[in-house]
Amino acid sequence: MRFPLNFVIGSIMIIFVLTAAVVSLFWTPHSHSELNISMKFAEPSMLYWLGTDQLGRDVVSQLMVAAQNSVQVALLAVFFGGAIGTFLGLTASAIGGVVEDIIMRLADLGFAFPALLFAIMLAASLGPSLNNAIIAIAFINIPIFARVSRGSANQIWQREYVAASKASGLTKFKISIDHILPNIMAPIIVQATIEFAVAILAEAALSYLGLGAQPPQPSWGRMLSEAQTLMYLAPELAIYPGICIIIAVIGFGLLGDGLRDITDPRLQGDR
Description:
mainly alpha; MetI-like fold; 10 helices; 70% helix
């Protein structure tokens, strides 16, 4: 099977980010919170591969641990938002009627607000922390997965084998678990991959505003925030985390597009 180019490129970019995140669990060149004022703004060297920041902290170590935080936030936020949204979408599709209308109108209400702006408002209300950032990002994912799962489930409910299951006396809950959910996993996984990119971007934005990871936890967004006053003195301190955000966001976006191309039967003949 020949994989689409966007899937291959996205996979390579995400493997790079995930490798940095996993390795940072066990090893970094220096402690990400170690201060060495005498070595502030050090040039790249064998000791400090990308130099140090205004407090003498190793930039590479901060970027690696920040990748871990970004992946953690994206994974948990998309998982919980996807699980709740998928449950609501399956419920709406299975029960229908007034229940479906209520759930879908609530989802529409969620789409009425800009997702990032709503996440900022929610995180500000809950207070600045990494856990509250996860809650805020998960919340904006719920209506997305509710709509995707409900639309996909409605198509499966029209299949003959589902009608046969209903005729055999199986409950709608049992049918949803045994037949509907397994058959809508492909679009849900594709959507989850795309939402990883949105979650990483949202986490960076929240941390940039001081609503995400708090010191001494490093974050790409907070590194950008701290570097904005040093643009003329050390512009590379803003460039490095910016590049990391670009790699992660574009990588997950390309990976999601590639998975969609792979799982879409209408595109099978093009490969």
